[in-house]
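Shipment paperwork, digital attachment
Item: protein structure file
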Amino acid sequence: MSTGQIQHLEKDLVFASLHSRPQGLAGAEVAERLHEVGRNSFEVKDPWKIMRSLVKQFTNFFTILLVISAAICFVAHRVQPGESMNVLGWALLVVSLLNAFFSFFQEYRAERAMEALRKFLPQQVEVRRDGSLTTVPAEELVPGDLLLLTEGDRVPADARLVASHELLASNAPLTGEAAPVRLDADACERRLTESSNIVFAGCSIIRGSGEAVVYATGLRTEFGKLAHLSQAIARPASPLELETGRMVRTLTVIAVLMGTSFFVYGMASGRSLWVNLVFMMGIIVANVPEGLLPTFTLALAMGSLRMARKNVLVKSLNAVEALGAVHVICTDKTGTLTQNRLSITELQGPSTAGRLTGSEAGRILGLARIASEVRQTDKGPTGDPLDVAVHRALAEEAGGLKPPHGNASFYPFDVEKRRSAGIAEQEGRLLFAVKGAFEALRPLLDGLQAKGGLEATDDQALARAEEIMEEMACRGLRVIAVAWRELDEEERRRLAAGDEIGQEELENNLLLAGFLGIEDPIRPEVPEAVAICRRAGIEVVMVTGDHPDTAQAVAARSGITESGGDAAVVTGDLLDKLTGDQLIEKITSGVRIFARTTPEQKMKIVAAYKRMGLVAAMTGDGVNDAPALKAADVGIAMGREGTDVAREAAQIILLDDNFASIVKGIEEGRTVFANIRKFTNYVLVSNGPEILPYLLYILLPVPLALNVIQILSIDLGTDIIPSMALGQEPPDPAEMERPPRNREQGLLTRELICHSYLFLGLLEGAWSLGLFFYVLLDGGWRYGQELAGNDPLYRSATGIALSTILLMQIGNLIGRRYAQRSGLDRGLFRNPLLVAGILIQIVFSWATLYFPPLQRVLQTGPVPLHVYLLAWMGIFLIFGTDYLRKRTFLRPA
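Attachment content:
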């Protein structure tokens, strides 16, 4: 039969429908069903997943280009040995391999979702098989198994109750609903997920005990369906991934086109194949910033470490920047904006508006405690969350009545009656107390407990009480009424004799003591965090499974919507009927609350924001949030109260479950992107003076000012530490006062290309080439004269060209710290890595010219000291010229 109908059956028919029996399955039946339906596991095996991930790393354009370049170098070495082209080939190959394997390692570490799913379920469960109780691994459960449930258990599979004793379950991990569910074994006509006779995998038993027949295991459970949905969703590429890919493709195309074009030109000009190969390799290597991708990774890794210190754990490095690009945060309510703990925040009398305090507050809490059942454990009080809230409030109330040592009788909450009750002794009197919905208690009332004594329950008095209750409800409070009376002599005698007194017998002549205002409190830091988001141009939207009224109240208290206003709410029923375009219209019209939503609908909401061109983040803590967490641009899970499934589906985990930590993470993410732009700009500037010598070499009869090894010494040597230093720059104080960047705003903008290549790059190229030709001419070289690669004059000239570029990069480095400020106004020593980068450039520029071991590697030679000092003038030239541009145009590069 269909498991979707199992809740409709009488419990006597459940065994027959699943071909089971009260004694449980036999061993042979278990083995047969295990073979047929598989293990109770949520993992979909993919043996090729790791291999595909590894292969993907080698499809990056930079990696392909570097591998091809290495191959060309090896071929060139065979054509003309002795030019060290094989050394260059191995260098390029090692760089490409290191990049690919490092990226693979990061991705491999992030994909652990199914491991967490196994940890989330109980490892051992108690079942009845062949008439005997036995403990088996949860993965070996099969449909038809008779499962025994007790307080504190986590349910291992979907099962239909056949026996129940005061069973209370929390379905919050699956449904997102904070309120516990009362369960029984009777037939139920509701939908499966709303049935009171079904226990679901992944959920917990709060109180009571029961027996249930398993009807779905593994991916067939509601939990498994969500897990499978989460696995089936491909994580979208982050904004930085998209932009990095675009930048890599652009630079690769430029490099290949330039290299190929001038190779053809050189061949047509009659130059030798060897000369043209060297030239083509130089153009490609000069255009491709080999150190840029490793620096990206390092910058993101350092950003993730800084986020971790702010309680924001980043699982995927690209999520560091993606968080900074967020335009909208779709946040869950329970456990994210709220504390996921019921709390009594207000006490009201039945006839006069005004909060009760002192002994009056203690009295009503004491009465409510009589109608509650709480057990003390090592971890604190346990039981119905409402009963626990009453217990805690009474214990905290100064001057309040002490909790009774134990109830003489307790009548558990009844779903139909909508109330619970109990009998206990207080101050020598035996009292009967009831707590529940006001509508359920109203017919039982005989009077009101007013400040001055008692009032009769005439229509006017009841109307007054109802007004107080409704006013509390309008403020988003869940309202519980409390009533009581003292037992008469006959009832006391019967109780002392051990007679059972039915609840209905006692529910008469009750006095209304007042109302408890209950809420799941907002986290205190949430309103300020939402306000900061608003100032930063980030929309905060609530997406919850709770009731619309509750959602409206929480949204108002959080600052998501205006206080006192009647904010528009889209419910799950309406959401089902809306097309994608209609949903976008609703969002555009100002809807910021989505209530009674399903996991599929949460993904629909995220998809709508993404269609609008916005970067969407989704927060959540339950299993039901996992698919949307994975579908969002940025998935953010709660670290303390969240489920393992949610944490593994997300890219970012809040270690303190603090919504305000998201704001800190966004600030850090924005800073990371700004810093990436800085060092991208910095690195591309040196491409100009690297390309120019090759253009002059192919067009004019002049020596080549830089060889390929020297270019690599810049890209993979001296530029790395300064780039890392720019990646460590602290946040701009005004970062969170600006709107998020447009999704189309990339790294490689027209302005950045012009600034890097046509302004600073040309400046570095002109000064370095000027000193190159100065050394040549001063040494007797004449235009058109060829020089051997080992000629001392030629080696000195290439040495000063390289040394000049290294020194000028110091001025470029300082200037890149800020788009509009000098870069000196905040102090260099506040960033130790920046100082280290400058020292490396200085030492390397000197060693290039005067340190013999490095001279041999780079094929350079010394120059007179006054020439070296002229190279130092390049620092002030590039820094001063760029600062003049900033002061003149006052806009970022």
